[in-house]
Structure to design on (201 residues):
């Protein structure tokens, strides 16, 4: 009986290992990717901005229609850019991101769920030292063979968060009423990811 248990345990471990090895890993190509945001300004306008420095990976199951199995990413807070230096420096300051104290914004996926005809990526989002669960609607495109060689996937996210949930509370009430800076922030992530070679054991 003991030998049988050992054989069964070995077989289960081998199955788990082979399943993990079957997943494909894709890494963000920053030259063909963007991490953007939109936020209301002075009630009547929308400011568009972006982060210039970021990295991330996803894993998919090629034997299951390239279903998303995992995702993670890191953004450098100091790389925020709205094309106005004075405003960008203010955003990096303790009034907002406090980039010196909290240099990175991170996401670690924990689950994927269906939502009607779409899919939701669930995970831990950390910004300004605060971690919260978020649900991110996403779209996967591909994979396709790149003319430059290799295999690529497209991964897109369009979601909304409230910056006050992460301690980014600076604001002013304008004379006409309303807030100078909106609290809800739309996040738009558009990425190309390159398939990585499987690690040799």
């Amino acid at each position: 009986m003991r030998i049988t248990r050992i054989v069964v345990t070995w077989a289960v471990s081998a199955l788990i290992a082979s399943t993990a090895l079957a997943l494909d890993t894709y890494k963000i190509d920053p030259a063909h990717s963007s991490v953007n945001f939109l936020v209301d300004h002075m009630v009547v306008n929308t400011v568009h901005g972006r982060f210039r420095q970021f990295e991330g990976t996803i894993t998919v199951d090629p034997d299951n229609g390239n279903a998303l199995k995992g995702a993670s990413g890191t953004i450098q807070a100091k790389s925020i850019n709205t094309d106005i230096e004075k405003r960008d420096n203010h955003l990096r300051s303790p009034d907002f991101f406090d980039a010196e104290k909290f240099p990175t914004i991170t996401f670690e996926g924990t689950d994927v769920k269906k939502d009607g005809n779409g899919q939701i990526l669930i995970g831990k989002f950390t910004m300004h030292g605060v971690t919260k669960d978020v649900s991110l609607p996403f779209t996967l495109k591909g994979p396709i063979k790149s003319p430059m060689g290799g295999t690529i996937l497209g991964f897109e996210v369009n979601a909304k968060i409230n910056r006050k949930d992460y301690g980014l509370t600076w604001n002013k009430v304008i004379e006409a009423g309303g807030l100078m800076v909106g609290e809800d922030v739309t996040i738009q992530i558009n990425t190309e990811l390159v398939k990585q070679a499987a690690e040799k054991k």
